[in-house]
Amino acid sequence: MEFTRAEVCIAAASDSWRDAGEVLAHAVGTVPVVGARLARMTHSPDLVLSDGEAFFMAEPPPLGRTAAAGGVIEAWVPFRRVFDVLQSGRRQSMMGASQLDRYGNQNISAIGDWRRPKRQLIGVRGAPGNTVNHRTNYWVARHSPKVFVERVDIVSGVGNDRAREAGGAALRFHDLGVVITDLGVLDYAADGTLRIRSVHPGVTVEEVQRSTGFAIDGTDATETRAPTPEELRLIREVIDPSSARTREVAG
Amino acid sequence: MSLEDFAGTIESGMTIGIGGWGSRRKPMALVRALLRTDVRDLTVVSLGGPDVGLLCAAGKVRKLVYGFVSLDSIPLDPHFRAARESGAVEVAEYDEGMYVAGLRAAAQRLDFLPTRAGLASDVLTMNPDLRTVASPYGEEEYVAMPALRTDVALIHLNRADAAGNGQYLGPDPYFDDLYAMGADRCFLSCEEVVPTGRLLAPGEDGRSAPVQSLLVGRIYVTGVIEAPDGAHFTSCVPDYDRDEAFQKEYAAAAKDPDAWRTFEQTYLRGGEDAYRAAIAGRAAVGADERNA
Description:
The complex is a heterodimer of chains A (251) and B (292).
Chain A: H1 5-16, E1 24-27, H2 30-41, E2 49-50, E3 55-59, E4 72-76, H3 79-88, E5 91-95, E6 99-100, E7 106-107, E8 110-111, E9 119-120, H4 127-133, E10 136-140, H5 160-166, H6 168-171, E11 176-181, E12 184-188, E13 194-199, H7 205-210, E14 222-223, H8 229-239
Parallel strand pairs in A: 1-5, 5-10, 10-11, 13-14
Antiparallel strand pairs in A: 2-3, 3-4, 6-7, 8-9, 11-12, 12-13
Chain B: H1 3-8, E1 15-18, H2 28-35, E2 42-48, H3 50-57, E3 61-69, H4 78-85, E4 90-93, H5 96-107, E5 112-115, H6 123-126, E6 131-134, E7 141-146, E8 150-160, E9 166-167, H7 176-181, E10 183-193, E11 214-216, E12 223-226, H8 244-254, H9 257-268, H10 272-291
Parallel strand pairs in B: 1-2, 1-8, 2-3, 3-4, 8-10, 10-12
Antiparallel strand pairs in B: 5-7, 6-7, 8-9, 9-11
Helix pairs in contact in B: 2-3, 3-4, 8-9
């Protein structure tokens, strides 16, 4: 069966929540949101979804809409409770990254010196708290040396080197999983550095390495699995019939 | 009390907490009232939206304490971005959960609350005053998030009685009760001031608001200001949603000095009645254009 690059990314995103258990799937971006719903509809029925506002959803509303647009509410989770949930550890994130370095330090705050940034971005938001409280994965829609940099300008999400160096309370629940990009899936070697776990069908290891701003090991890279026919049906007909995914990943 | 009476109590150099979240249920009428005064050098504590943008644009902010400054449907307030990139304001940027810990500490009159959030991140670098605290029970060490205590809190709710018992009717209280408790004085604006007995009385549909909607008690409130559309252009559910068209106009104007002068002239130079009239006129023009 024919499939697109976006659909490969969604299946990989879905896999990131495999065996996560009965936790809140926190997803930022279209591919992660569709991936979380796909995970819930296939291998992880206990996963908890939210409407991104004040509710947990037994049945999610249409993509990109809040509970007011439909769906079935199962719990009340205003913003103040979101912080309780993440501190309890019953949550697993897939966040975006404006910069990401070889140890998985992530920056969404600003480019340049924080005192007077060249470019103000959205700020650290919840990244510091997420990364020291529960498993955190990242989604990068355009794999490039501008994103994958030697050193991030501001550490918003805590990487493996920083967590290990700090130790104690910073390290106790720190758990970086995977980085999914439009080119492949990265994970972390035992020394905490990023490596290529798989490249998407049609992508080479060299292409990923060329698109990464630091040396990255691709020795054991495999090919990212293709979405199954059932997954493709769910993505196309049920979860994302208006193809919002193609606006995030071309092809 | 009137918006003018409220504004008259604010002095330059004060630390002001502003309730709501991003572009949601912000006390915009109170902020607009501040824009019409000559107060300046404010320290603003906010999960920021256009409240922060407008105060920055008016040059009233010395220091900004925030978890984020977003318009929700627009990821970043353009005035905030400009203030950061020109170095115009001093900042304390915190993780959102740290910020909430700071509000809770202030509400409890504690110096700090411990939190895991922030450890090993550059939040500690960006806030060199931040300290950690060792657990007396084990080996762990946490961030000691300092109390975000304020001189004055500004919040906007759906309804209140004249004594200051405030009620929210939407799905999220945000943190308005914590702002009220963590401030020396709190000014509460609302869509409608109602007799106390009406807060939980059955409405026209025969249904009453749940008692849990009574978010803020009068023991924390100094003054109540009736301000219909007082959160405009942010959302104040269920009374109204965000005015997305107007927010777009605000954000576009904020990116261009000439456009911003026109925006200020059109909407911000008069009183609140003039603002509401300008908004109503704009809506009418929009309707005419749609009908044409």
